[in-house]
Amino acid sequence: MLDIAVSYNKYKFLGDEFLTWVWYVVENEINIKPMLAMECNTVSLKLGNTIVLENSLGDESSEKITIKGDDAGLEEGTTALRKGAVVTEMNLIFTVDENEWRFSIKGESMNITGLKTPATGNIESQDDIEGAVLEKIELYTIPLQAIDTLFEYFIKKRVSDRWRDIEIPAMREWISL
């Protein structure tokens, strides 16, 4: 059996590759609704106000690029991708119909932080508390399940021949633009 630390270090690249792929999907406006198989009218995923990239320089040193701001240009990020960097953390905006969630996700651990859910209804009486708690739980569950499903979709694609033959060339073309 693999030691947890060994396993963690061996496979942490998958989360970084996943986030890099998510950026590719968002920038190319690829429809994620079929990937998620959600029952709704509209689903979208957009970049939020932060993206962090890291480029390993070989001798156990690395270069870290952080791009912040609502209208920040991503040219430096795509330049870093051309040099071999991967996305290690990003802020995302996930929308289902009229509901919007904002959160950050780290590639190495797939931890989701700073999750902001849509507003819930007002609690007007003691009887409304249970319903409000259940509604809040559901609002937390939706983006977590979506990321899990998107990651599962990515992994299936990543281990298929389609990854090497179609996805990598398409991502390289996107990076070179």
Provide a descriptive summary of the structure in words:
The chain has 177 residues and is an alpha+beta fold. The chain has one domain (4-176). Helix content is 46%, strand content 25%. It has 6 helices and 5 strands, in the order αααββαβββαα. The protein has helices at 4-11, 13-27, 33-36, 75-82, 128-158, 161-176; strands at 43-56, 62-68, 86-96, 99-106, 112-116. Strands 2-1-3-4-5 form a 5-stranded antiparallel β-sheet. The model has no long low-confidence stretch (mean pLDDT 90).
Q: What is the mean predicted local confidence, pLDDT?
A: 90
**What composes the largest sheet?**
5 strands, antiparallel
Rg (CA only): 18 Å
Helix-strand sequence: HHHEEHEEEHH
Major β-sheet strand ordering = 2-1-3-4-5
Low-confidence stretches: none
Taken from the alpha-carbon principal axes, the silhouette is globular
End-to-end separation in angstroms reads 44 Å
Helix and strand content put the structural class at: alpha+beta
Give the helix/strand layout.
Blueprint: H1 4-11, H2 13-27, H3 33-36, E1 43-56, E2 62-68, H4 75-82, E3 86-96, E4 99-106, E5 112-116, H5 128-158, H6 161-176
Antiparallel strand pairs: 1-2, 1-3, 3-4, 4-5
What characteristics describe this protein?
single chain; 177 residues; five-stranded antiparallel beta sheet; 6 helices
Provide a compact summary of the structure.
With 177 residues, the chain is an alpha+beta fold.
